[in-house]
Specification:
It is a single chain. The chain is of the alpha+beta class. The protein is 37% helix and 20% strand. The chain has a domain of 193 residues. It contains 14 helices and 7 strands. A 7-stranded antiparallel beta sheet has the order 1-5-6-7-3-4-2. A hairpin with a 2-residue loop joins strand 3 and strand 4. It is globular and about 55 Å long.
Length: 276
């Protein structure tokens, strides 16, 4: 079975008003870094298909990244061995091999001057962003579409990255309400419908990004992992704290509601959640 909401979300994720971006980072043990489940064969098959059909869309790397990526690959192999699993066949770049071996997407972040820069990525399941367009960009530029990121989060994120101890692992959760349960949401496409579906329980899905950060030991670099989980809203409504999500929706600034593609129906969805 795929992991349940309770197995993925280990703490409340919908904050009370007023709205503010929060890092919400929590530490992890090394053995908790990856989350393989019964969807693994399907997810890896989809990754392989995307790699065959659209290789330039799902993998990119700057020169000089192979050594740090090899350390990531070693960590992936060690983790998979703990679950009795084996990695995928080797590719030319070790990060591509690592990314096709796990359900997580994997990105390499390295310090360049005073910034942390995305230098390589194996990204098959993005939430409406394009890997190639942000390769070589610092975190602040990558997050420029996020309203108020520069004022509320940029400095804290950079400091957190700077202070991560070698070998340490952390995670955070990011949520979206989407109309399409697909793992890969293409750049430029709305992730939610323009109006509330007749049956939100089946027409909407809660999409959770379990984002992990692991500081490498042999290199001054961080591997950023993104594991996508999607459930029909009706399946998880008893677990998510419907009232909390309703209050969060109502508190979203207009710019944030537009960014999350919720501007067309968030009030109606909040009302539906209150009724539930």
């Amino acid at each position: 079975m795929p992991l349940s909401y309770r197995e993925v979300v280990d703490h409340p994720i919908f904050s009370e008003p007023p709205f503010r971006w929060r890092m919400g980072v929590r530490s992890l043990a090394a053995h908790e870094w990856l989350q393989p489940d019964d969807r693994r064969s399907d997810d890896l098959a989809e990754k392989e298909l995307l790699t065959e059909r659209r290789p330039d869309a799902v993998f990119a790397a700057r020169p000089g990244t192979a050594s740090a990526a090899a350390e990531i690959h070693d960590l992936v192999v060690e983790s998979l061995e703990g679950y009795g699993l084996v990695p995928s066949a080797a590719r030319r770049h070790p990060l591509e091999t690592a990314g096709l071996s796990v359900q997580e997407d994997l990105c390499l972040l390295e310090p360049v001057g005073s910034s942390w820069v995305l230098t390589a990525g194996s990204v098959c399941f993005p939430t409406r962003w394009d890997l190639r367009s942000i390769l070589g960009c610092p975190l602040a530029a990558i997050h420029s579409p996020v309203p108020s990121y520069d004022r509320q989060l940029a400095g804290r994120v950079d400091r957190f990255f700077d202070r991560m101890a070698p070998g340490s692992v952390a995670h955070r959760l990011n949520w979206s309400v989407v109309g399409d349960p697909a793992r890969r949401l293409e750049p430029g496409a709305r992730q939610a419908p323009t109006a509330l579906p007749a049956d939100p329980a089946t027409g909407l899905h809660l999409r959770i990004e379990r984002q992990t950060l692991r500081r490498l030991v042999r290199h001054r670099a961080i591997v950023f992992g993104i594991r996508i989980h999607v459930w029909p809203l009706g399946v998880v409504v008893d677990h998510i704290g419907a009232a909390s999500l309703g209050r969060q929706l109502a508190a979203l600034p207009e710019a944030v509601a537009r960014y999350k593609d919720l501007d067309g129906f968030r009030d109606e969805l909040a009302e539906w959640l209150r009724a539930v």
